[in-house]
Write a structure and sequence with these properties.
Number of helices: 11
CATH class: Alpha Beta
Strand content: 5-15%
CATH architecture: Alpha-Beta Complex
Distance between the termini: 8 Å
Shape: globular
Number of strands: 7
Number of domains: 1
Order of helices and strands: EHEHEHHHHHEEHEHHEH
Strand order of the largest sheet: 3-2-1-4-6
Helix content: 25-40%
CATH topology: Spore Coat Polysaccharide Biosynthesis Protein SpsA, Chain A
Largest sheet: 5 strands, mixed
Structural class: alpha/beta
Length: about 270
């Protein structure tokens, strides 16, 4: 019951060009090589792994899982397959009404101007559910882990295989800030006020499709109200609307990358 399949994805959305020369903060820039280096660390785990990517990146990604037969790479053209939501996201981001809403100190963050960034983050629950529905998953537990999650060699905590007995009846998300009644989602969006983190989500095969449905519902609500944000606000909306379906794990605000350290059981 503790075996975990990891689902992840990587698409080139041009982040290598997010530089000060282009009017953006230098902390936003990450090249494809940076992502591949980080993935190479997670790729060493013996967990089953399903990776969604574009055709041009599939071969390079596969080299990091060389010798691990429990790897499946799924090719997706996200700009074509998800053209509608991408275009609707862009319309919101480019509207004057939306721009006026956003705190000027936050406006350069990509969720406010880059539709591809919003799209790839929104699709996390879709990819996990797709893997389940297409019989690519053998384990009962499925974890979404960001492709670039392992920022240094210590992130995997020396594990050969990651295992943990997460409650199968819950969707497991991780929070750096408790919700305060009276807070408004529109203010969360405007101020980039993060509560639920996005790099890792864990659920059973039964619960992932339910999360995808909730994410779709809340995304539709935002777009219909000329609002947009990344997956972290959508996850928060899911938790607030269906609290009984979630287990919210509180983690330290300055350490989002504790999954393999604090949630592992080598004897599981």
């Amino acid at each position: 019951m503790s075996k975990i399949t990891i689902v992840t994805a990587f698409f080139d959305i041009g982040r290598g060009d997010w530089t000060p020369d282009n009017g953006l903060p230098n902390y936003l820039q990450r090249t494809n090589a940076t992502y591949m280096e980080r993935f190479s660390r997670m790729a060493k785990l013996d967990n089953d792994m399903i990776i969604y990517t574009s055709e041009d990146l599939a071969q390079e990604i596969s080299t990091y899982r060389e010798g691990k037969l429990n790897t499946k790479i799924v090719i997706v053209d996200i700009k074509e397959q998800f053209k509608d939501i991408r275009e609707r996201t862009s319309i919101v981001q480019n509207s004057d009404e939306y721009k006026r809403l956003i705190n000027p100190n936050q406006i350069k963050n990509p969720e406010y101007w880059n539709a591809d960034y919003v799209l790839v983050n929104f699709l996390k629950s879709h990819f996990a559910t797709h893997a389940i529905k297409n019989s690519l998953v053998d384990s009962e537990l499925v974890a979404w882990m960001d492709f670039g999650y392992c920022r240094d060699d210590n992130t995997t905590n020396g594990l050969l295989e990651w295992k943990y007995k997460f409650d199968l009846s819950k969707i497991h998300v991780f929070s750096i800030k408790p919700w305060v009644d009276g807070t408004y989602i529109v203010d969360v969006i405007a101020n980039n006020d993060v509560h639920i983190t996005g790099p890792h989500i864990i659920a059973s095969k039964e619960m992932w499709p339910k999360l995808e449905h909730m994410m779709n519902t809340h995304m539709e609500f935002l777009v219909n109200n000329n609002l947009i944000d990344d997956d972290q606000t959508l996850l928060l909306m899911c938790v607030l609307s269906n609290p009984s379906m979630f287990f919210v794990h509180m983690i330290q605000q300055d350490d989002w990358f504790v999954m393999f350290k604090d949630y592992n059981d080598i004897t599981a």
